[in-house]
Amino acid sequence: MANNKSSKKRVLIAERNRLENKAYKSALRTLMKRCFTACSEYLQKPGDQAKESVQLSANLAFSKIDKAVKRGVLHRNSGANQKSRLSAAVKQALEPTTSN
Question: pTM of the predicted model, to two decimals?
Answer without folding.
Answer: 0.82
